[in-house]
Design brief:
The structure is a single chain. With about 260 residues, the protein is α+β, with helices and mostly antiparallel strands. The protein folds into two domains: about 15-110, no CATH class; about 120-240, no CATH class. Helix content is about 30%, strand content about 10%. It contains nine helices and eight strands. The protein has helices at about 50-55, 105-115, 120-130, 135-145, 155, 170-175, 180-190, 200-210, 235-240; strands at about 15-20, 35-40, 40, 50, 90-95, 95-105, 160, 170. Helix 3 runs antiparallel to helix 4 and helix 6 (about 170-175) packs parallel to helix 9.
Length: about 260
């Protein structure tokens, strides 16, 4: 039992532990401390929360209990610091041990967004897979049986990221930024009108091996023509990257793989 000197969750006022339940009917619960795990998020303001309680209560960069701003700016020496997200540095104690000065801003922001827009969960997952270069995860997501309220595969392919820099980047922007050429080819195959004969044969072979093929694109927005909120196409990002020296996108500029041809 928790002593009066131990902190409690500022949201539910319960001890900062997660109680384990038996995995089966044959397994009997014990009365020892071995039946619990630590579950403590210690915020910079001093308040403590269960992880689930913090996710439920979080809305801005303020503590849900005292409304103190708990965010901080990243170090000035960080690259692209002018565009960098704020940090929320906490001490997290859970089954993995104690992690000090852990930045949880991105996780909290995403969960708050999905709480407001639950239908966007698959879109955010898709964009994360584009950033990671995980073709197989993208295809699995697109082929998954839809649940009520889910976006269609065509909508997922053309979704934009609310938290990119600048906001509004497509999976193609993100794949280019992270030098994932195979993902870019996959997105162009599934969400553009790039002529079929222009794709390398290997692109079709890999798509067939993953069990996905191009569908009719008439009437659908071509992903190459989608600009982020800074007015940039995926080709603009590729050109900027190539200006620093030849890389993955060498030779792509001007071929209208990553931007729409002039009509």
């Amino acid at each position: 039992m928790s002593s009066s000197s131990e902190p409690l969750c500022a949201q539910c006022n319960l001890p900062l532990v997660l109680t384990l339940t038996p995995d089966s009917e044959e397994e009997e619960p014990t009365s020892s401390d071995n039946n619990t795990l630590p579950d403590d998020v210690h915020l910079p303001c001093g308040h403590h929360f269960h992880w689930s309680c913090l996710l439920e209560a979080y809305e801005t960069t303020s503590c849900p209990a005292c409304h103190t701003d708990i965010s901080s700016r990243p170090p000035a020496s960080s690259s692209s610091s002018q565009q960098a997200d704020p940090q929320i540095l906490v001490n997290l104690h859970n089954e993995g041990g104690l992690q000090q000065n852990l930045d949880i801003f991105t996780l909290l922001r995403e969960e708050a967004y999905l709480r407001a827009f639950p239908e966007q969960r698959k879109c955010l997952a898709f964009l994360e897979f584009c950033a990671e270069g995980d073709q197989h995860a993208i295809v699995t997501l697109l082929q998954a049986l839809p649940e009520e309220g889910d976006p269609t595969p065509a909508q997922i392919l053309r979704s934009t990221h609310p938290f990119s820099h600048p906001p509004g980047q497509t999976g193609l922007h993100i794949a280019v930024s992270n030098s994932h050429r195979e993902v870019a080819f996959l997105l162009l195959l599934l969400a553009s009108e790039v002529p079929e004969l222009e794709f390398p044969a290997l692109v079709y072979q890999e798509a067939a091996a993953m069990g996905i093929m191009r569908e009719e694109q008439t009437g659908l927005q071509d992903i190459r023509g989608m600009l982020d909120e800074g007015g940039r196409s995926a080709e603009d990002i590729a050109r900027q990257m190539e200006s620093r020296g030849p890389g993955v996108w060498h030779g792509w500029a001007g071929k209208h793989w990553l931007s729409m041809p002039q009509r």
